[in-house]
Amino acid sequence: MISINLSGKTAIITGSGQGLGARTAALLAQAGANVVINYFNDLQGANLQRAKATAESIGKQAVTIEADVRDPAAVAALFTRTIEHFGRVDIVVNNAGILRDRSIKKMTLDEWKDVIDTNLTGTFNVCKSAAEKIADGGRIVSVSSIAAFHGFFGQSNYAAAKAGIASLTKVLCRELAKRKITVNAVAPGVVLTEMGKAIPEAVRQEMLKSIPLGRFGEPEEIAGVILFLCSDLAAYVTGQTIHVSGGWWV
To answer: Smallest Cα–Cα separation from 176: which of 231, 136, 124?
Structure first.
């Protein structure tokens, strides 16, 4: 029997208080990894409560650490605190992201910057700290999106950021290869997380027509691919963006 064993490894998953991030953290923990539940402390405190609930559901293998991925100093502190608590960092999953959909005619500069700063610059900040702190032979996996390859209406900011992640992945796989660190991305289709469920029903039904498998994805299905890319089974996979979309390509 082939199994994935991440015992003794530590994973940081950004934006992991809910949705895909939370499911990924739980799955990596089930494989034996210690996990850091990262969240951004919003004014209402909802993200903190979600992060705590996720950590409690995992147990002693999980800790919560607040950090705004847009802030390089906060990201550096995230890695420092992780190493202080668990002793090492082996896996980094860039999951933090936001949506601010609007046609380019109506999109404000702030809406453009909010998405680029969080989704793309945030991923850069985390990868920069990871390049300094992650153990040799480590794994970096970033969440891109099929939006980067389809150019959906009203997502110029989101699509540009997610396309940037795919390109960043190719560069970093070369820069970190000497240390046997692999760098990959996943590009989910529509996944039934809180973000996916926020899409209007009429729009979702139209999207469904483009998916050969005839259904939307579940968070566990994306997390499973991330788990594979974090494992020894994927030791020779690097620089790739894996589409997990039910066949939605054209």
So the answer is: 136
Taking only the tens place, the pLDDT of each residue in 110-134 is: 999 999 999 999 999 999 999 999 9
Taking the C-alpha atoms of 160, 166, 172 and 178 in order, what is their torsion angle to the nearest 10 degrees?
Answer: -170
The helix (H) or strand (E) run that includes residue 30 is helix 19-30
pTM of the complete model: 0.95
The rounded distance, in Å, linking the Cα atoms of 207 and 218 is: 15
CATH at residue 81: 3.40.50.720
Q: Give the three-class secondary structure for 78.
A: helix
Joined tokens for residue 3: 């199994």
Which pLDDT tens digit goes with each residue over 156-191?
Answer: 999 999 999 999 999 999 999 999 999 999 999 988
Distance CA 243, CA 222 (A): 9
User: How many domains does the structure of the chain reveal?
Assistant: 1
Catalytic position from the list 39, 40, 86, 158: 158
Residue 204 tokens, joined:
């979702």
Task: Quote the mean pLDDT of the chain.
Answer: 94
Domain that holds residue 76: 10-244
Active site residue 39: no
